[in-house]
């Protein structure tokens, strides 16, 4: 198959590209960074350098392809994040429609069933709605909270001896490893299913308190606590760390959605399977190696 992969060579794109090339597919990787061209070609894929907000570039790239992995960056600039993310989805939708590509796997998220109260995930809600209008086979791959987000806690662990966020230690959160997402995309993109389908890709379901203990044990800090911050503390902490105010506000809102259970609710209430292979204890080893 001729497959287009967006998302460059990040935590998902790199293992996905390697997987698809090894399986014998003709793979083109979209990247906005021309410096990635050699690395993409070294994996045995072709590089298409351009912006996912440019429908003309996307249309040209998608011509003649059998399938697309569509991934929109979550933070397109420090302002108008939801609108910019949605516009990138609109550009993809236009290119998909104009090229009549037959199979699409879209990276979405837990909480994408919600129009509001989910922070940056709201952009994915709008994109799912756009894609639902397309006459093609689409799987909305709703991923859990990335394990790799916990790397953001490293300065807090080293500086204050805690992990934390504006959600409590005992709330259940569906978690996922990017390489499990890559595996799920590789499985879904070659399917010949019809219509629109939703698949959740989750590696583990754990609480923040359990996460802090597990990661803490891996770095020889078995008493590492999870501290719940207020929304105001969370917002100010991110702003002080240099995160743009709009993005800090969106991530604070996402934390609120995790705290009240709304973001995880659709997955948890459906008793769906946990398909990912990488459990929290497995990720803890990676975390310790990076710590």
UniProtKB/TrEMBL annotation:
Write out the coiled-coil annotation as residue ranges: none
- List the SUPFAM superfamilies hit by this protein, alphabetically: NAD(P)-binding Rossmann-fold domains
> Pfam family example for this protein?
NAD_binding_10
Superkingdom per UniProt: Bacteria
Q: Which residues form the NAD(P)-binding domain?
A: 7-114
Family annotation (InterPro entries):
Ergot_Alk_Oxidoreductase, NAD(P)-bd_dom, NAD(P)-bd_dom_sf
- Name the record gives this protein: NmrA family NAD(P)-binding protein
- From which organism does this entry originate? Flavobacterium ginsengiterrae
């Amino acid at each position: 198959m001729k497959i287009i992969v967006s998302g460059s060579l990040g935590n998902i794109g790199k293992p996905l590209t390697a997987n698809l090339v090894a399986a014998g597919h003709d793979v083109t990787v979209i990247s906005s960074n021309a410096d990635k061209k050699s690395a993409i070609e070294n994996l045995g894929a072709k590089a298409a350098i351009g912006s996912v907000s440019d429908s003309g570039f996307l249309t040209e790239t998608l011509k003649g392809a059998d399938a697309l992995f569509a991934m929109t960056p979550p933070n397109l600039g420090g302002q108008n994040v939801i609108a910019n993310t949605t516009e990138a989805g609109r550009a993809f939708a236009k290119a998909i429609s104009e090229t009549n590509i037959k199979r699409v796997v879209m990276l979405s998220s837990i909480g994408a069933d919600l129009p509001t109260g989910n922070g940056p995930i709201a952009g994915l809600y709008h994109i799912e709605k756009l894609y639902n209008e397309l006459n093609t086979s689409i799987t909305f791959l709703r991923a859990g909270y990335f394990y790799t987000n916990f790397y953001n806690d490293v300065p807090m662990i080293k500086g204050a001896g805690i992990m934390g966020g504006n959600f409590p230690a005992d709330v259940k959160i569906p978690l996922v490893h990017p390489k499990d997402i890559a595996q799920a995309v590789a499985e879904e993109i070659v399917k010949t299913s019809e219509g629109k389908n939703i698949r959740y890709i989750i590696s583990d379901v754990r609480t923040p308190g359990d996460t802090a203990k597990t990661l803490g044990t891996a770095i020889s800090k078995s008493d590492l606590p999870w501290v719940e911050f207020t929304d105001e503390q969370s917002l100010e902490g991110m702003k002080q760390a240099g995160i743009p105010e709009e993005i800090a506000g969106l991530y604070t809102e996402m934390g609120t959605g995790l705290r009240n259970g709304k973001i995880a609710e659709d997955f948890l209430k459906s008793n769906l399977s946990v398909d990912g292979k990488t459990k929290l204890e497995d990720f803890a080893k990676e975390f310790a190696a990076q710590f």
